[in-house]
Structure formats: structure tokens, C-alpha cells
Amino acid sequence: MKKVSLRDIAEELGVSKTLVSLVMNGKAEENRISQEVIERVKRVAKEKGYEPNQFAKALRTGKSMTIGLIVADISNSFYSKMARSIEDTAYGSNYTVLFGSSDEDPAKAEKLIKVMLDRQIDGLIISPTIGGHQNIDLIKKHKIPFILVDRPLSGVKSSFVGVNNLEASFEAVDTMLKSGCTRIAHINFYQELGNMKDRFNGYVKAHEASGLTVDPSLIIHVSNDRAVGEIQQFIDHVGDKVDAFFFANNEIAIIAIKYLMHSNIDPHRDVSIACFDDHEAFHLLKASIGVIKQPVVEMGKKALELLLERIESNGKAHQTITLSTEYAVLNEELARK
Known about the structure:
Layout: H1 6-13, H2 17-24, H3 35-48, H4 54-61, E1 66-71, H5 77-92, E2 96-101, H6 106-118, E3 123-126, H7 133-141, E4 146-149, E5 159-163, H8 165-178, E6 184-189, H9 194-209, E7 219-222, H10 227-238, E8 244-247, H11 250-262, E9 272-276, E10 289-293, H12 296-312, E11 320-323, E12 326-330, H13 332-335
Parallel strand pairs: 1-2, 1-3, 3-4, 4-5, 5-11, 6-7, 6-8, 8-9, 9-10
Antiparallel strand pairs: 10-12
Helix pairs in contact: 1-2, 1-3, 5-12, 6-7, 8-9, 10-11
């Protein structure tokens, strides 16, 4: 079906294309076009189902009213909640959001950035990958306002929205130590990601605060593309040597808990568990589990607000917003049995 053009509306009304363009672009009154003509043009445009060419509008106004969002994996519950928060907040400000998943691949992130730049986005919210500095350089080259979310990137000056990773991890591990756990295994991703490094440091500092020395054999940093096999091998190695696990995120936790149960290690009777971030699946476990709840909705909202501020005033000073987490024990009644 042929897309309705300004010329189609002009021919229907017997007026010039220029007049229709002025009306549709909100410039009718300043050009002394009567209210009657304005209403006629808008009525015919609506009847014909006219939709403005957003690319042409962006070239004309300098704004596409579109922003980009690139995260590691949009299917992950953490990022999907954040994306929904950003989308809802953007909608209230008349912006549309383009989504993309980097899959922790800087080359894929670069491709997504280029596609979004071609779509004339006004700004970008990005959770960077390992080795993501080149991606940031690309964004800066095109002078597009951007916000880092969830993961800081060393050496990059930017506005950032995240949580108190180190302090939250310290609290979770300290709670397990004070409950009597003495051999807490830790599974994390590689330390190039700033948030994961802080979570590891929180684990270490909690041990130091209790006068304990961390056992390196109880720690593993897994790769994103081989995480399942590496986690399973690690559990086979330490499963009978530990009394607790601290998982750096819910993706790791889901993989590990499945394998613990497969290995006949009861997450309730045999080991204690704590995880950075919550997940719906944890609420279904017949075991207590400590979770660090992140204010995901608020993170998305704050990131979008900061980005819109930078779009409106690109010279505005960079801001860092660190939101507080909440530590809670799910299925706590089971912990008392």
C-alpha cells in the first residue's frame, strides 16, 4: 500500500504542498494560515492515515525523538525490567526507544551502534561490554550524548547510573559469615567488568573484616561463552568442601543451582546461597536464599532522565548516580527449620 504523502493531501484539498507542510510541522499560525484551513488539512491527513517521515523530520528539526538502548542480553530479567522502565519513561517524554543486545560481543555492539546512528538517534544508553572502549570512542566521534548504566568503564568520562556493588556484596557475604559459614565459594565473571570487580572485592573485604583469609581455590571467574561448563566443573571440584556459595549475578546462580540439585547437593540442607540480584525462579525454590535486590526500575528511569538532560544541554557536567540495594532472605521460614 502506497504511503500517503503531503502532495496527496494537497491535491485532495486543492492547496499547495508547502501549505500542507507548514500545517503538519506546526508552523501554520506563524505563517498566518487560518484556523479553518488548519483543521481541514489535519482532518484529511487523519482520514488518509498520513504518517510523517521521521528521517526527514530529524534532518529538518535536528531531533528524531528516538534514543537507543544497548544491553548485554535483553532477555535477562534484569535488563528486560530496566528496558521497560526506560521505554515507559521515554514514552512520557514523546521519545521512542530502539533496543539491542550486545551478547557481550564488542563487535556486535559496534554494529548496533552504527545502525542506531544511521537511524539518527538523539542519544544512547549503553551497558558496555568487556573491551567496550572502542564502542565509546565511536559514540564520542559522532558527538551523540550517552549514558553508561549498570557497568562503569574505567577511563571513560561519562554520566553513569549504577548501584553500590561493593557494599552490597560485603553485606551479603558478611551475613553468611556471621551465620556460621566459613568456606564460601564465589562464582563471578571476568574482572574487566567494573561491577563484577566490585562484587568480588566485597566478597574479599567481608572475609577480611571477619579475620579470615580468602581461599583462592574457592573462587572462579568464568567466561561468558563457556560459563555453563566452567561452573559445572567448579562445583564438581568444590561441592563437598564448601558450606555456602555467593553468586555474582542471577545468570550464574540459575546455572549453578540447577547443577547443585542435579549433583544431589541440597541448596537448603547442604549449603547456604546468596546471589547478587533477584530472580522469579528463586521464589519457587524449596530453600532459603539471600538476594541483593537492585532498584532496576529506578535505574532505568534515572538513566533516561540523565540522557534527556544531556540531549537538551550537551555541555552539562557528567553525573554519577549510585542507588542503594536491599539485602533480603527469600523463603526465610525455611531457614529456621
